[in-house]
Amino acid sequence: MGDHGAMYVPENLLPVYKNKVVPLADILTPNQFEAELLTGRKINTEDDAVKVMDLLHEMGPDTVVLTSTDLLSKHGDQFLVALGSQKISKVLSVFFPQQG
């Protein structure tokens, strides 16, 4: 749908994604911007990300993976942070190097 604060699709499609597409999904892989759009919640901390993933689970998907976030890694800012969760299990964090 978008990234870095910009939509790739017309804004009027957001309700379609939110109300029709997401509830049908088994697995949802939004980036941080898309997750924030779908839930109306900002992600500033890992706790915020977990709450947003919980909200996305409530919308339907069993598995949610935030494919990239602006969260700072414990390993420094040269790493992107991805987080994933399933309705029945804990959150998994993955750190991978950013390409320069």
TrEMBL record:
Reactions listed under catalytic activity: pyridoxamine + ATP = pyridoxamine 5'-phosphate + ADP + H(+); pyridoxal + ATP = pyridoxal 5'-phosphate + ADP + H(+); pyridoxine + ATP = pyridoxine 5'-phosphate + ADP + H(+)
UniProt keyword annotation of Magnesium present: no
Gene3D superfamilies in UniProt: 3.40.1190.20
Keyword Transmembrane helix: no
Top-rank taxon: Eukaryota
Protein keywords: ATP-binding, Kinase, Nucleotide-binding, Transferase
Boundaries of every Pyridoxamine kinase/Phosphomethylpyrimidine kinase domain copy: 5-77
Function: Catalyzes the phosphorylation of the dietary vitamin B6 vitamers pyridoxal (PL), pyridoxine (PN) and pyridoxamine (PM) to form pyridoxal 5'-phosphate (PLP), pyridoxine 5'-phosphate (PNP) and pyridoxamine 5'-phosphate (PMP), respectively. PLP is the active form of vitamin B6, and acts as a cofactor for over 140 different enzymatic reactions.
Family per record: Belongs to the pyridoxine kinase family.
Descriptive protein name: Pyridoxal kinase
Source species of the chain: Characodon lateralis
